[in-house]
Design goal:
The protein has 153 residues and is of the alpha+beta class. It has two helices and nine strands. It starts with a helix and ends with a helix.
Length: 153
């Protein structure tokens, strides 16, 4: 009977852990800190599109732990922005992550910033026990983006 109880508890705990979720809320703004409306948010789990939604001013999603996601933000007149989120290592008791997403105006509507990599990587910091930006990744991508943008002008 003890073995059955132990197996049952393990199974229940595994199911609970598999469905643990962390809330991510993003606030949409432009370079002048104006709130943006009618932004398409696509969410990818690995490379599979799992959600598409048109939002205004902010978005909020509960994401499963131990998964890689990519948020793709699309708005006419702005460069598309991608943000990678890794929920590996997080616990379901982790605080929600709030962040601002600044979208850059595309002055020439025909010009595209052809960088396929996410502009930011958000991941769980085990030492701090919170989600945070990977600063070195973001700086490196920003530098590469600026170089590509200057070359295209």
């Amino acid at each position: 009977m003890k073995k059955f109880a132990m197996l049952f508890c393990t199974a229940v705990l595994s199911v609970c852990c598999a469905y643990s979720q962390i809330n991510f809320t993003g606030y949409l703004k432009d370079e002048e800190n104006n709130k943006l409306k009618d932004v398409t948010v696509n969410i990818y789990d690995q490379n599979e599109l799992i959600s598409t939604e048109i939002v205004s001013k902010k978005f909020s999603y509960d994401l499963n732990v131990n998964t890689y996601y990519t948020l793709e933000l699309v708005k006419d007149g702005f460069f598309t922005k991608r943000i990678s989120i890794s929920t590996f290592g997080a616990k379901n008791s982790t605080e929600p992550f709030l962040f601002a997403v600044e979208m850059l105006v595309a002055e020439d509507k025909n010009k595209k910033l052809d960088i396929d990599f996410p502009s930011a990587l958000i991941e769980y910091d085990k030492k701090k026990q919170i989600f945070d930006y990977n600063v070195s990744y973001t700086k490196n991508i920003k530098k590469q983006s600026e170089e590509v943008f200057v070359e295209k002008q």
